[in-house]
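Sample intake sheet
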Amino acid sequence: MKIFIRRALILIGSFNISVIVFLIALFSSGFQFTISALISLITFFTSYSLLKKKFIPNSNLNKIVNKEKKYVAQQMKEAKKKVKEINNARFRVRSIFVFQTINNVYKMSNKVIKMIETEPQRFRDASHFIHQHLDSAAIITDKYVKLVSQPVRDHTIKSSIREAEDGLKSLEKAMERELISILNNDITNLDVELKLIKNSEKNIDSTLKK
């Protein structure tokens, strides 16, 4: 309804502008009606296009933005489930070293999720972390918990447990590197902003001195 009202107001405004231009052109051209009407028509479509662009949001762009928001929200919902599984797994392991590893994985994953929830646009920077590292962490953690819960351990199970522990440790390091990379983007952006501020201050100082 708001869009309809805006369109109507823009149409009325453009018509009024074109009428004024028509009258000005008519008197200026010595009452040449055809030329004045043509100028008025061009003015109408130009003003309508400019006003529409300024006051009516791009519906296609809004649709894309809304789709992206829904996609990110859905991804965060799935990510939270995996983080919850990792969180529960922390208290089902017997090794203090494995507990620390899973705990670090949980904390880093939780940090990234909160970061994206605060600033959804950062999902692109963290998509590899979410789709690769978090998925792998949930799978390996679940596998490890199932293995250590076995009442009997033969050589194969023991070997699988060691592989899972090594996998978790490697994943922890990979997640740390990925998180540092994400945070470094913030530092780079901050440096650029600080440089721009300093340059602006220098320009202001030089202008005042003149």
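Comment: Residues 2-56 form one domain. The chain has a mean pLDDT of 83.
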